[in-house]
Amino acid sequence: MPILQLPIEGAPPKADRPIRKIAIEEHFIGPDSDPHDHEAAIVRHSGIGPKWAAAAVQRLADMSSIRIDEMDAAGIDVSILSLTSPGIEQIPDAATAIQTARAVNDYLADHIASSKGRFEGFASVALQDVDAAIAELRRAVDTLGLRGVLVNGYVGSGEDRAGLYLDEARFDPFWKALADLDVPLYLHPRFPDIAVKEAMYRGHPELISATWGFAPETATHALRMVYGGVFDRHPKASVILGHMGETLPFFSWRIQRAFEYNPLDKRLVKRLQDYLAENFWVTTSGHFSDQALINAILTIGGDRLLFASDYPFEMATDAARWIETAPISENDRRKICYGNAEALFGIAQ
Questions:
Q1: Contact 217/85 with Cβ under 8 angstroms?
Q2: From 3.20.20.140, 3.30.390.30, 1.10.1660.10, 3.40.109.10, which CATH number describes the 21-345 domain?
Q3: Closest Cα partner for 347 from 121, 139, 176, 123?
Q4: Is 72 labeled as catalytic in the residue annotation?
Q5: What is the rounded CA–CA span in Å between residue 27 and residue 25?
Q6: What is the mean pLDDT of residues 218-227?
Q7: Helix or strand or coil: residue 328?
Q8: Of 156 and 104, which is predicted with more confidence?
Q9: Which residue among the candidates 131, 303, 310, 332 is catalytic per the annotation?
Q10: The pTM is what?
């Protein structure tokens, strides 16, 4: 027998509505991508099973009904879409990378235009050729209206099989272009280089991807930017890290402490904690943990956190339910869910 409910007569009419959200790490595959190739790559590189990979890629390839239905269920007004890893960065030939990036950005812009305000996007660029990357970044932002750029980890290159990292001097003109355009760079994980995988993860494929491998790969890349002086040379540059900062908010004190003991040649203007609070933004993508959220707020502040789900590799509805009840102030909740993204990307609602 159902229990007798007390009448609720004074609640405001929208009291049961979820808080609105802007989600900023939500992925898709390019127009010429074969979904089956993506399924096989997920299984081959990460140790994840084929059933999960098939479901994720079905969601990844959809740019309409499946994606929009989940956004509606999670209270997400706008998703900022980005090309999934390994993206343009894996392409060894610069000319092919340039052509592919342009096609992906045009494809994304078409879907944004037809989405009735539900989609925005991050550009893809071919950093195999820095001048071409700068030209495409400017076209993507100024002509297509994209909100920044997403880079999937290190950049594959014929001259350096192990990859190029964004603290290297060759990328300084690209950082300047980002700062001049006043748009952020989202640094997204990529599977570790094959030589690293073969040594460190031998016999443990379960550790390679999101379980563990993505975090140290991406955190190391971010630390290279800091200790390589990127933000001293380009103080207006902004970088977004997903997954609650790829462990850096938690480890920042110890990293800085150990760095100050070193006798080597790297010297910075500020502490790591200062760069995290001034040049970095952190998203909640794929990390729906109260403890991690509070640690990030204590390290960099609620003004630097952004909501994301990591669609299609996580459920947006799980991300939404968590942030709506996380033990934080209502002001911080609103900033994280939509206010900070509106300010960073200039999204008017």
A1: no
A2: 3.20.20.140
A3: 121
A4: no
A5: 6
A6: 96
A7: coil
A8: 104
A9: 310
A10: 0.93
